[in-house]
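Quick one:
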Amino acid sequence: MKSLIYIVLILIPALGVAQIPDQFSNEKLAIQHKKEFDTKCKQIGLHAKPEYYYKKNININKYQELKSLGVDLKVMDLKTHGGFTYQEYSLMSNIVIKGKVIEKIYDADRESYFHTTVKVEVQEVVKGENLPKIINLKLRSGLIGENKYVKSSDEPEFEIDGETVFLFLSKVPYHEMVEQKEKGFFQHKIPENYKRLNDYYLEGKFVVKLDYVFDDLNNNVGKIQDITSSIQAIEKVNNSNQFYQRSYK
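Output:
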C-alpha cells in the first residue's frame, strides 16, 4: 500500500544577491537598479514581496494601470501561496498556454527535486515564447521510493484522460539551482543535460470546459477569449522584456 505524505511547497531557489543579470555590465549597476526598485516598492506600499517582484520582472511603475486591469499589487502583496486570480498569475508567469494533458511520468529517486513530469500538448500560446508541440511541466509531488507518494501543499492534481488546461508557467531555473548547489544550499540532484532542457514549473492551473475557464473550486472565471485578451493587455502594460532597461527612481 502506498503511503501519502504532504509537504509544504518549497519555492525554487531564489536569485542570489551575488548573481548579476546579463543586462548589467557590472555588479555596481545591478545593485543600484535593485536598490531603486526596492525603494519604489516601499513608496508604493509594497513590503512583503519586493524580491519576488524583482525576480518576476514586474513593472511597479505601472501600479495604477495594472490595478485597472485587475491586478492590485497591494492586494497581491498580502497573499501567500495559492488563491491568486488569473490576472495575478499572468503577471507572475513567463508562459501562459492552453493545452491538453497527455502523460504523467514519475521519478521515484529520493535525491530528485521534481518527482513528476506532466507532458502537455500545447494548443495555444497566450503569452510568451514559441514552444514545442509537447512541453514538460515539473512537479514536486510524486512517488518517492517504492511506496510513498509525496503531495506538495499547493500543487493541483492532473488528469491524463485528455484534460484541457489553462496553465501559467515559468521556466525551471536550473542554472540558479546549480549555483545554489555549489554554495551548499541545494542538495537535490540536477539533470546533467540541464542546459538543453526547457522544463517549466507551475504558477497556476485552470481547467477548460468548452469555451470557459474554471478555477480549482470549479468557479467559472470567464470565456477563454476574454481571459486571453486580459492576459495580453496586462503583459502589454507590464512589458517585462524591458524590465532591466527601466528606471525605478
